[in-house]
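Hi support team,

I'm opening this ticket because the web form for multi-chain structure prediction keeps timing out on my end. I have pasted the exact lines I submitted so you can reproduce it. The total is 760 residues across three entries, so I didn't expect it to be a heavy job. Is there a limit I'm missing, or should I split the entries? Thanks in advance, R.K.
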Amino acid sequence: MNEELDSQLSAMFDDELPSAECELLARRLSRDELLKARWGRYAVMGAAIRAEGGVRLNTGLPGRVSTAISAEPVLAAEPAPQRRERWGNRWWQPVAGAAVAAGVAAVSILWMRSQAVPDAPNLAQAAAPMTTSVVSGNASPASTAEPDSYVVPKTPGRRLVVPSTELANYVVAHSEFSSPVGRRNLLSAFMATETGTAGTSAGSEEPTEDVQDDAKNPQ
Amino acid sequence: MRRTRSSERSSTVALSCFALAWAMATVAVAEEPGKWLERMNQALTTRNYDGTFSHWQGGKVEMLRIIHRVQDGAVSERLVSLDGSGREFIRTGSDLACYLPDKRIVLVERRPPEESLFGGIPAINDQTAKFYDIKEVARTRLNRRDTHVITVSPKDEFRYGYRLWIDETTAMPLKTQLCNAHGKVIEQIVFASLTLSSRIPDSAFKPEVSTEGFQWLRNEAAPPKDPAAAASLVWDALKLPPGFKMAARKAQTMPGSTDPVDHLVFTDGLASVSVFVEAHSQSNASSEDPPLDESARVGSSSAFSTVIDGHKVTAVGEVPPATVRFIANSVKAGPGPRQ
Amino acid sequence: MSADVSDLSLVRRVQRGDKGAFDALVLKYQHKLVKLVMRYVRNPAEAEDIAQEAFIKAYRALPQFRGDSAFYTWLYRIAINTAKNAVVSRDRSPIEYDLDRNNTDESYDMQGRMKDAETPEGLVLTDEIRSTVNAAIDALPEDLRTAIVLRELEGLSYEEIAATMDCPVGTVRSRIFRAREAIDRRLREVFEGGLGRVEELG
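Hello R.K., no limit was hit. The queue was backed up. Here is the completed structure from your submission:
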């Protein structure tokens, strides 16, 4: 323990430390948990000496505020040259919302080619993993009632189902085996997928002429 | 002496003593946090509830509603996007339906009735502790409710971590953050309202979307029973990220298809990854392009698809992209039937 | 010496993105703020909730804080407003648990409050802290005790204390520090475990 440092801390607590020293100590205080704890105890003894009636001294308030603040964006009053400061080892220390947003490339159900993107028709077909078939389609009766029966052709013809549908199938099938929280995250993200975002994927989303217009102009 | 008391009521003492809150990272509160995860899982899967929550991911926020009911052993669940795509996911008993109004498609998957939803849920066990640090870091109040803040931090980059605000009374997670291995929050769910009630009517599980003119894609009611018997090849992952083990293997057909798909599930006790293997008919590809790898993100979950031995192999899971890629690439066919 | 320089150095750090500096401000002012809020609400737990909310609001508003007034004055106003609003909108919590009360496998408290405020553990610790501090002060040499009491109870500045005690300001600083050290030694025993233990090594 450093007596001079603690003496400075005590003076700073009383607002009796020269400002240059304050700057340096504030910097240290912000990242030194032991120093912070001592600082906190100085506040506790003050409260105890004043016998602040009805006030609990041993609250979890600082921890709760810290937890809440950690979910808040980092402030940057200046034109934000992101200060590369060490945050200690609290792993959950999050970053600014903006930084997260920038770091996450795609929210949507969006297949991305890891190699060069061929032109759209080729893409649609090359991406075809399985032969599946669309049933009913626009030929279904103009009624809101569910069809009574479904027909899956025994010999599927050319691939008609969009890749995102295929991914939807995977997502749903997988969700049955996720942890409850993981499952909810996954399905929520899938439900939250924006209309039309998937269409940006080099035109690979609209496989059939029939569906195409609807998919491009939903509702 | 005090130490004895603090081990009995570790969470209370540790956190009612505010100074210790600053030593959160170093205070060892064993076993309790894991219990909270179990209680939470139990609550999420067995309670009846109806709630709205915000889902934040990639800078976007969307409101969703979730309704969950367990009645006479049957699980009903409905998840609705309230202000975006209008998509709905509805489970009623053994039917899973996905309403995609933006695609004008309804996907319906009928699952064998004996297949319990709970059977597949990964269980938190000693193994889990090897790959995650599970801690209670705070007791806090969220929306005027007492909550336990539990962090689940991954010890490597193959998995995500969680930060959970678990309601003390109901064990429901009122707020959930998904964090990457560096602790960055990448996805967040916060309940805006939540009602727990004993009775939820059937009508709550009817879709709101009009399905007029929608395509209905459905899988065949009875998928092949045994993957090993049905297929000539048995698929497995030769190498897995540390801690992952195969948890399930089944064959199924996907909505809109008659082709069987092998479905393998790997889990580390918390995160899970599904691998889907299906025939990849080259004849359909009009060009001579070599098979291309594809990847996708669904929220913070990842998918990766590649072609192995003439089969399309796709891995999907709520894990980082590298993990699904690792697993998909290590899948190989062995001679069937099962060894 | 300009007042508030210590708070301002912390505030500036927070404004530049250092969340850790905000911890120090919370630690310093939590008791004052809770005491303040207790004028509006009687339940300590609720007061803490409001204080917590005030701190979070302050954090969010900190980019707008220009230092025209002292930080605590500014924080004080936020806390007062938060407390007033809380009183007005009390019992209109955003989360409503419509829990089925027939289903009594667990008993629920509709507002989810009341329970936590007065846990026996909490009270014991509070009393323990208070009596520890008082005992430590009683055991202090006269000059140290006078210095710390004048500072904490009477709120005098070092200069005023120096005038009262007829000694240099530097001596006041040292007396107050030594008093705190002595109290802190006892206090750490109460807070036992983690911090105190680790600190001995350092």
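A quick check on our side: Confidence is low (pLDDT under 50) at residues 78-162, 194-219 of chain A. Let us know if the file doesn't open in your viewer.
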